[in-house]
Structure formats: structure tokens, C-alpha cells
Design a protein that fits this description.
The protein is an alpha+beta fold. The protein is built from three helices and five strands, in the order αβββαβαβ. The chain has a single domain, classed as HIT family, subunit A. Strand 2 and strand 3 form a beta hairpin. Bound molecules: guanosine-5'-monophosphate and zinc ion (ZN).
Length: 114
Amino acid sequence: MSNCLFCKIRDGLIPSKIVYRDDVCLAFEDINPQAPTHVLFVPLKHIATVNDVTMEDRETVGHLYTAAAKVAKERGHSEKGYRLVMNCNEDAGQTVFHIHLHLVAGRPMGWPPG
Ligand code: 5GP
Ligand code: ZN
């Protein structure tokens, strides 16, 4: 997707603070962090929303969770906990249409979300 912000970050056309990278996903610091740890995990494959995830993408989406858990562990969040969120479309507040898993950690969080 030529006009996608996260594809541009993936391709190095827009700078970001890369946290983790492998052959399936890329993780970088959120530009507007909502907690001491706020990292975005994006598949290298462009997928616009969760509505567009196919059966073929199951391993890719699962991979985002294992990568996020690894980074959470490295940063010492495993025991106290953390939140993993993937927003879909307008009501959930999705603003970048390339799926991404938010890893938010380092402070207590309320539930339900606003
Ligand atoms: P969404 O609202 O779509 O679930 O999350 C999009 C996230 O991307 C937001 O938390 C926002 O702060 C982050 N974001 C938007 N533009 C940029 C950018 O250029 N660089 C980085 N690192 N994060 C961004
Ligand atoms: Zn994209």
C-alpha cells in the first residue's frame, strides 16, 4: 500500500524507534505513548483492518501476540501485566489502517476502556 503510514515505516521511508523486527512483523515505539511502555506491533503484510484478516493470516496475527509478549517480558512487565489492543474502525478509534497490536504497560489501567 503506497500511501500507508505503517508500510512507509516498515520500508524505512518514515523514521521510527524500532523495538523488534523479524520476518513476519515489526515493532516500534508509539509516537504518542499512553503509558511508560507503548509499542506497536505491525505485520509486514499490509492488512487494513481486523475485518480484512483471512484464514491465511492466522499465523501472522498470532505472531504479533507472541512478539508482544516477548517484548513485554524483556521490559519486565510479564508479572504485573500489560494490555494488548487492536482497534477496528471508527467506534474503536482506529486511525491508521494497517493493523497493529498496541502493547501498553507500566501503569495500572482501568476497565472498561472509554
Ligand atoms: P490506532 O488509533 O489506529 O489504534 O493507533 C494508531 C497509533 O499510531 C496511535 O497510538 C498513534 O499515536 C500512532 N502513530 C500515529 N502516527 C505515528 C507515527 O508517525 N509514528 C509512530 N511511531 N506512531 C504513530
Ligand atoms: Zn500498510
